[in-house]
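Fold this sequence, please.
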Amino acid sequence: MRTSIVHDERLDLVHYPANGWTVIEVNGQVDVHTAPKIRAAVIMLLNGGHRHFVLDLCPAPFLDSMGLGMIVAITKRIRDHEGSLHLTCANDRVLKVFKICDLRKVYAFHDTVDQATRHAPRRGALAHWPRPHPT
């Protein structure tokens, strides 16, 4: 069941379950205007008991440094709750931001949500983050 978290002129966020994961689909730019809303949505879900997330950035056409900072911040929050985080993104422009900031190797990236949720999540998968993610 898909549930809308945020819906406004800049951002549409929906979440839904998939194989033990909570998928958060980000439709809109991830920037100074939308990053705080995404962060708040993840915190709300964490407070509601969700622990394992896939942040689906495939529909997001743009990510700026504020968006990248938000992803690092939510990663720390999820880690503190012994959760896990995968990112989906096939957009070279968005992936380039992670590469430039040398964060491409510390996240688990997948091309699709199906790939990201293929295996059930592990408790505490981020315990040693930000060590480079094994490729």
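The two ends are 32 Å apart (CA to CA). The CA atoms of residues 97 and 131 lie 18 Å apart.
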